[in-house]
């Protein structure tokens, strides 16, 4: 046993479970690749001020959960707690918005870090696939992203998730609502930290999960009653486009999300089989974020889907992913001469695009065949001195048990034909 273990609240991905996570990541990303989104990758850490400005200093993410540190050179950095601010920073730095093709459509996959109390479905290190469409204010873009996420989940076989939808208004109508909400909240019996939040970002109080707080929120003013005509029309078009696409959603007037930068469309994907950590993904429009971090006005929208939570949702529904074997052919040499010959054959098969493994370690036939069986290989190639003398190898079909001699120089073509 190792002296060291994974840090609290983290996990290791090891075979065979890691194959499931890779399959989920691929499925979440596939609709994006087919819809004009290009891949972007950003550093695992950024200037701490990027998240303080973009995510919001009043959020739990920045005030309580962010891993912040100072480097030997005096730089104040933070492990990224979310992806949007980093992606927008990278797009601005690379001047992608000046290439003349807006929106800039980007997707990404990576690890994120938050210092939270670990529990099932909530980790201090977690994985997400995200998408951002930067530089266009269009209800069709908001609808597109929701539809693509719905498509991704359904491609995995998930059916018991729900889409929650709301509008948070814009800089014209939200200040009026903010003032009305603050007036209401100031009269409630709340702790000091929540009272401080009332003054900084009162909408976040609506997102408080504590039952005693939620009970007091009965009768709170609702943002839908304060939306300006433009925001109402925008939200109605998003709803109409989703309905036309056959995507079922639920209006949730209390949906806020945990980041300060959201405006207008906000949405969340929840799964009722996950207990308290029911959100498997979410996102929304963030029209003012670019200006918050020093860029030009670039209305944008995006989402992030949790890989860990999606895996848990699949398990909750009993969905088994069809994961192909990583090995198609397993080579078993009997003797030193066969070892050299088959090792060369393995290299040829791999160069021909056939997933092939080798019985390393000089094991006997019985042990090597057990390894071949565990590998999931469809075929084994076995050769001893007599086979080599005849210029053949024995090709065994691991499903049917049938075995036949094949000329050494015809193995690659024969195997490829049988796998086609």
Summary of the model, kept short:
This protein is of the alpha+beta class. It has helices spanning 17-33, 48-56, 60-65, 84-93, 139-155, 174-185, 192-200, 203-206, 211-216, 229-244, 289-292, 307-317, 336-351, 365-375, 385-389, 411-419, and strands at 38-39, 45-47, 68-70, 76-79, 104-113, 125-134, 161-167, 250-251, 263-271, 279-285, 300-306, 329-333, 356-358, 379-383, 392-397, 403-407.
Write up what this structure looks like:
It is elongated and about 90 Å long. The chain starts with 16 loop residues before the first helix and ends with a helix. It has 420 residues and is α+β, with helices and mostly antiparallel strands. An eight-stranded mixed β-sheet has the order 1-5-6-11-10-9-7-8, sandwiched between helices. The mean pLDDT is 92. Helix content is 39%, strand content 21%.
Strand and helix layout:
Layout: H1 17-33, E1 38-39, E2 45-47, H2 48-56, H3 60-65, E3 68-70, E4 76-79, H4 84-93, E5 104-113, E6 125-134, H5 139-155, E7 161-167, H6 174-185, H7 192-200, H8 203-206, H9 211-216, H10 229-244, E8 250-251, E9 263-271, E10 279-285, H11 289-292, E11 300-306, H12 307-317, E12 329-333, H13 336-351, E13 356-358, H14 365-375, E14 379-383, H15 385-389, E15 392-397, E16 403-407, H16 411-419
Parallel strand pairs: 1-5, 7-8, 12-13, 12-14
Antiparallel strand pairs: 2-4, 3-4, 5-6, 6-11, 7-9, 9-10, 10-11, 14-15, 15-16
Helix pairs in contact: 1-5, 1-12, 5-10
């Amino acid at each position: 046993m190792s002296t060291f273990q994974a840090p609290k609240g983290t996990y290791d991905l090891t075979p065979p479970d890691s194959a499931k996570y890779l399959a989920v990541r691929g499925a979440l990303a596939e609709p994006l690749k087919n819809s004009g989104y290009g891949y972007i990758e950003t550093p695992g850490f950024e200037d701490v001020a990027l998240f303080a400005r973009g995510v919001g200093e009043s959020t739990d993410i920045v005030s309580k959960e962010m891993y912040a540190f100072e480097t030997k050179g005096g730089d104040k950095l933070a492990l990224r707690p979310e992806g949007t601010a980093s992606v927008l920073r990278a797009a601005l730095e690379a001047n992608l918005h000046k290439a003349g093709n807006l929106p800039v459509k980007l997707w990404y996959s990576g690890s994120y870090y938050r210092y939270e109390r670990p529990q099932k479905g909530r980790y201090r290190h977690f994985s997400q696939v995200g998408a951002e469409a930067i530089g266009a204010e269009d209800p069709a873009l908001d609808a597109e992203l929701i539809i693509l996420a719905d498509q991704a989940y359904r491609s995995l076989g998930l059916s018991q998730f729900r889409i929650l939808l709301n509008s948070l208004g814009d800089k014209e109508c939200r200040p009026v609502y903010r003032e009305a909400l603050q007036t209401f909240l100031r009269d409630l019996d709340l702790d000091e930290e929540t009272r401080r939040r009332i003054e900084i970002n009162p909408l976040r109080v609506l997102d408080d999960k504590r039952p005693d707080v939620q009970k007091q929120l009965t009768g709170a003013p609702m943002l839908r009653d304060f939306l300006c005509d433009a925001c109402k029309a925008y939200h109605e078009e998003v709803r109409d486009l989703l309905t036309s696409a056959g995507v079922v959603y639920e209006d949730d007037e209390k949906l806020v999300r945990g980041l300060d930068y959201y405006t207008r469309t906000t949405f969340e994907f929840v799964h009722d089989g996950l207990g308290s950590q029911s959100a498997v993904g979410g996102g929304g429009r963030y029209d003012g974020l670019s200006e918050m971090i020093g860029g030009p006005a670039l209305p944008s929208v995006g989402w992030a889907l949790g890989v860990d939570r999606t895996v848990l949702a699949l398990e909750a529904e009993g969905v088994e992913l069809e994961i192909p074997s990583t090995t198609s052919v397993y080579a078993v040499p009997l003797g030193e001469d066969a070892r050299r010959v088959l090792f060369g054959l393995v290299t040829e098969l791999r160069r021909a695009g056939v997933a092939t493994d080798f019985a390393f370690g000089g094991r006997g036939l019985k042990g090597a065949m057990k390894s071949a069986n565990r590998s999931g290989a469809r075929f084994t190639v076995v050769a001893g001195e007599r086979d080599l003398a005849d210029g053949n190898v024995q090709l065994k079909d691991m499903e049917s048990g049938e075995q036949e001699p094949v000329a050494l120089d015809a193995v690659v073509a024969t195997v490829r034909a049988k796998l086609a």
